[in-house]
Amino acid sequence: GENVEQHPSTLSVQEGDSAVIKCTYSDSASNYFPWYKQELGKRPQLIIDIRSNVGEKKDQRIAVTLNKTAKHFSLHITETQPEDSAVYFCAASRVTGRRALTFGSGTRLQVQP
Amino acid sequence: AAGVIQSPRHLIKEKRETATLKCYPIPRHDTVYWYQQGPGQDPQFLISFYEKMQSDKGSIPDRFSAQQFSDYHSELNMSSLELGDSALYFCASSLGVRNQPQHFGDGTRLSIL
Questions:
Q1: Cβ contacts of residue B71 below 8 Å, gap of 6+?
Q2: How many interface pairs between A and B have CB atoms less than 8 angstroms apart?
Q3: Percentage of residues in chain B having pLDDT higher than 70
Q4: Across the interface, do A43 and B55 touch by the CB < 8 Å criterion?
């Protein structure tokens, strides 16, 4: 089955700096890669996603890049704000067959004011 | 916009008891996923349903069962509860076409005493 590895496990940045979280996946059939933000005790919230036919996608301060050859994808947050502090999960799944998400282990992002 | 509704939000049970968790997907969503999240861990896929049929099975114990009803709501039935079943249980829903995004409910926090 799919295995998703995520780094780093914790990340502390100063307000206004950029944050980068990286994930690798093992299943070459995976072709959908969402990112979720989860605050303590709350539901995972989808913040951005990318499909395998696209190399990069941007939404305001958030961008995701995908390298299918190397089987890795990254989340980039620019101009970080204290409210960006949360746990971020990457995930991978297929379009057909098993569509359930396999999550990475999460990155705890702390934005220092 | 309507979101995924889960009930109850909190549930306290004792060992060997049974529990039923309910999930009402976003209107028009035909696919439901169940995930289990332990403290400090990533969500683990349990089981999913598409058009009222089981579509995929993950790490769901034999003591658990689930189904999707004609109105697309789903129930997760848990029997012979163990201390290790204490976790957050999330339901997510999506349109089961070409990997549309999965949107999560607020979860049910299950505590086993």
A1: none
A2: 55
A3: 97
A4: no
